[in-house]
Design the sequence.
């Protein structure tokens, strides 16, 4: 099977060239052969997958199917899955079996997807390299010495290595887009509120957003059609009409106004990434788009603001993991305080503890105004910069990351250089906007070819236009079809 996009798999399933059970066995087989190298999965749900596949085949036979029926999927281990281990890649939840499904999972199940398992990630989604996982680092399928990005690194690596057809991810500051860029796949973070957060373990609630990681913008549109839309269980999900995201994929780009942020072309951007961006702009111009430089004057403050807001929210969200209700509890506590201290001390990894400390500090009396309030003000300025830009342009195009995938261990000693990995993605979360990373080149300077991603950012709830623009790019380039040698 050479083309493993959902669009192609769905056609084969519809024509009866392959059954979902056969397809599922093929993926399970690939997982059995390759996962020991990539470590992309924490849990493989073979029995569940085969049962869902049989059910999907029966549904197809009855004519009760949609495009995703029978398509094998992997879920980031941050999504609660009923009767299946849900760890968030933490020792803290190392034995947690969820009693219910996240809304995203529930909707995909209802559409007939086949759950292959739960993917590895940075612990509680805190990281940019997938190295903070309690279950060990994930390896990038393009070069196993390198990171796949994070925090949805397992999902991105699994899609890139054909260990699933599509995957779910979450993005708080770049965790869908950055690993998609590092692994040469398409990663889409919708507007805040577009998709329900019910059953998605909370990191920073005002920033977290679920989204698809897949092989093409078309596949992302197919998945969005299933997962987008309001949910009575999440009061922050927005009650706005959900369009058919596939209906506008082929709209013309004539007259599309693309803005390129001056600040993204400045110091710090790798040469090859910049070249890929320039080449992409030429493709868009040939399709009838116009390009102009725009300003995002406060973008350089986004990482600092994020690293106050996100840890502050995380420190509150993670207070529920106390060794009492569920999750890890230390052995033989001598008293209540000892139980709290040791359960949290032993259950959380170093990066999670760092965030809890920073967040608790920023929220404490006396520091609240100096840090938290200031960060919220910067957040407002960043949003205003985007609003101003979108008065002049339809989409914003820039790099997803400054460089291609780095080596495992390379950035571990210095959290700040790791945090700067998200300099182009974090502002988008602070502003609540949709953003998509698509493959736009291959770097050739490090021995093995490494994917380069570019990011398109849309205005509030402008998902359909973004997917249209990304799809048109993919109709006229073949970067998204490049695969690593597995
Ligand atoms: N890398 C960022 C962080 O560590 C973003 C993570 C995310 O989007 N979940 O917080």
Sequence:
């Amino acid at each position: 099977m050479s083309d493993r996009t959902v669009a192609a798999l769905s056609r084969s399933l519809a024509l009866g060239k392959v059954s979902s059970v056969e397809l599922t066995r093929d993926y399970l087989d690939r997982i059995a052969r390759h996962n020991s190298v990539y470590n992309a999965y924490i849990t493989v749900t073979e029995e569940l997958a085969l049962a869902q596949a049989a059910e999907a085949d029966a549904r197809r036979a009855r004519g009760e199917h949609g495009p995703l029926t029978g398509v094998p999927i992997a879920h980031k281990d941050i999504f609660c899955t009923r009767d299946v281990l849900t760890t968030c890649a933490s020792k803290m939840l190392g034995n947690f079996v969820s009693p219910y499904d996240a809304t995203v999972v529930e909707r995909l199940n209802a559409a007939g997807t086949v759950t292959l398992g739960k993917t590895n990630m940075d612990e509680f989604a805190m990281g940019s390299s997938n190295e903070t996982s309690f279950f060990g680092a994930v390896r990038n399928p393009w070069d196993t010495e390198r990171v796949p990005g994070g925090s949805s690194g397992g999902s991105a690596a699994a899609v890139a290595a054909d260990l699933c057809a599509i995957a779910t991810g979450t993005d708080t500051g770049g965790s869908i887009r950055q690993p998609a860029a590092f692994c040469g796949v398409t990663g889409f973070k919708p507007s805040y509120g577009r998709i329900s957060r019910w059953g998605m373990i909370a990191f920073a609630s005002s920033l977290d957003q679920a989204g698809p990681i897949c092989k093409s913008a078309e596949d992302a549109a197919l998945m969005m059609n299933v997962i987008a839309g309001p949910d009575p269980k999440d009061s922050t999900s927005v009650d706005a009409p959900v369009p058919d995201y596939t209906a506008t994929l082929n709209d013309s780009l004539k007259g599309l106004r693309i803005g390129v942020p001056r600040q993204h072309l400045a110091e710090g951007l790798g040469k090859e990434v910049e070249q890929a961006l320039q080449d992409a702009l030429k493709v868009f111009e040939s399709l009838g788009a116009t390009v102009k430089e725009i300003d995002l004057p406060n973008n350089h403050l986004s990482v600092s603001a994020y690293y106050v807001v996100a840890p502050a929210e995380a420190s509150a969200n993670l207070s529920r993991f106390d060794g009492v209700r569920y999750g890890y509890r230390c052995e033989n506590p001598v008293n209540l305080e000892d139980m709290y201290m040791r359960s949290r001390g032993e259950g959380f990894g170093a990066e999670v503890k760092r965030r809890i400390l920073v967040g608790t500090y920023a929220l404490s009396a006396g520091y609240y105004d100096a840090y938290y309030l200031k960060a919220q003000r910067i957040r407002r300025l960043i949003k205003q910069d985007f609003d101003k830009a979108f008065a002049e342009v339809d989409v914003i195009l820039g790099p997803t990351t400054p460089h291609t995938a780095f080596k495992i261990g390379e950035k571990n000693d210095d959290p700040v250089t790791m945090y700067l990995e998200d300099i182009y993605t974090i502002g988008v979360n602070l502003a609540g906007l949709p953003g998509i990373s698509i493959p736009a080149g291959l770097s050739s300077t490090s021995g093995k070819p490494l994917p380069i991603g570019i990011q398109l950012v849309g205005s509030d709830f402008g998902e359909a236009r973004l997917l249209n623009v990304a799809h048109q790019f993919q109709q006229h380039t073949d970067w998204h079809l490049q695969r690593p040698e597995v």
